Every structure is written in structure tokens, then in C-alpha cells.
Amino acid sequence: MIVGGPSKAGAVTERRPWTFYALAGIFCLYMAFLYGPMLVIYLLSFQGENGGVTFPMVGTSTVWFQDIVKPGQMANIPVSFSRSMGLASVVSIITVVFAVAAGLGFRRRFPGSGVVFYLAVASLVMPSLLVGFGIGLGFQFLGWETSMFTSALGAQLTWTLPFGLFAMFAVVNRFNRSWEEAATDLGASAFQRLRHVTLPILLPGIIGVAMGAFTLSYDEYARTTLTIGTKNTLPLEIYALISSATSPTLFAIGTLTTGGSFLAIGVTLVLVLRMQKRRTAASLKVG
What we know:
The chain is mostly helical. It has a domain at about 75-250: Orthogonal Bundle (MetI-like fold). Helix content is about 70%, strand content about 0%. The chain is built from 11 helices and no strands. α1 (about 20-45) packs across α11. It is globular, with a radius of gyration of 26 Å. The mean pLDDT is about 85.
């Protein structure tokens, strides 16, 4: 009778193949290529008062962050930031509404569904500048004035809506229709089924669509530059600042905006995890 586990002589030592280390090295190089420039920007944003936009650093300070909000600057960063936030919020809301409606509507085939789908995503294959140029010319031909919440809003929706549709279709395809059928059997109306069953289950995906649309709108430059009118968003203001003068203030702006993006992503992930935890707890209670 053999007591205990296998002997050392019978043990087999598994070695990872060389391809594992090669792929790991490639991944590390990719991460360095992706995040290395960001780390450089973060460091140079704390450049000393007499420092420039390159290494070596001449001391450390926060003077360049103070320059962002200092009156009389060449670029009005706080105002352009508020414009970008407002426009991105509206774009995000509209994208979510249309993406959710399309995701639920396309669960059943209808005549012309393929044509409608390809028309909705066709703007992705067109160069962004041409899309903005076409919208700007259309407004000029009709005698309408281009502005942030008309032409620029439409131009950005041609960019965010297709991605929102793709993401929402992936979420809806994993949706189990039996939950809706169970709610119907229990006497729920169509509105009650949508409000209390469908939307709560799809909510993590909806939040993802909203965050994706917000980010795409917030960073958009090419489709906005010819349709925004006289008021710049943050990307346009930063580009104007780069064209006229270069200082570590640009790096400070990048540090603050990137930090804000990471904060928004972190808050979103926490919300999604809390929803999933609450849903799991509710499922255990029902079980």
C-alpha cells in the first residue's frame, strides 16, 4: 500500500516553452511603448520654473499647473474644458439612447435591417476630416450657422454611434430572453418588463457604452474642427496652444485630463462591480 503522494522520482517538472518568454517580452515592450510617453509627460509636468519641455529637469514645481487657471493666458483651458465636458455629456446620452433602442430593436430581423445597420456604421470607413468637411459645407449651403450643439454634435455622433451600436449589440446578444418571458408570465407589462428586467440586466453594458461615447467625444478633434464654429473645445484649444507656444503647461494639462479619465474609469468599474455583487446576492436569496 502506498501512502502519500507521488515520489520525487515520478514527479515531472514542467518548463514553460521559449515562446512564453518571447510573448511576455513583446507584451512588456508594448506596455512600455504605450505608457512610456505618458510617464514622460507626467514627470515633465512637474518641471521647475526655469525648465523646458525636455529633459533634464531643472528642479520641480507645480507652477505649470497654476498657469492653467491663471488669468490672461493665451489659451482659455478652463472654459474649453467645460465646453468639452458639456458636449461629451450630451453626445454620451444620445449615443446610449440610440444604441440601447437599436440593440433591442435588432433582436428581431425586419425588412431592410441589414441596409439600416450598414448605413448606421458607414461613417466609420470615411476619413474624419471629410465627414466634418461635408457637414460644414452642408450647413453653409443651407445657410445655417455652425455651433457646438448643432453641427459639432452631429459630427461627433457619426463617430460615437457606430461604436455604441457595436458594443450594445455584443451586450444584447448575451441577454437571456427567458428572463423577459418569466416577467411576462408573472403579469408584467411591456414597460414594466423593460424597466425592471431588461434595463437593470443591461445596465453594466449601458454604462460601458456611455463611458466609451464620452471618451470618444471628449478627445475628438478631426470631426470637430470644421463644425464647432467660433468656440473651441479642449482638443482644439490645446492644438492652438501647440501651434503658438510650447511650454510644460501642455504636460500639466495632459496630466490633469488623463488623471480625470482614470478617475472616471475607476468610478465606473466600482459601480459595475457593485451592481454585479448586488445581483449575485439577489440571485442567492432567490435560490
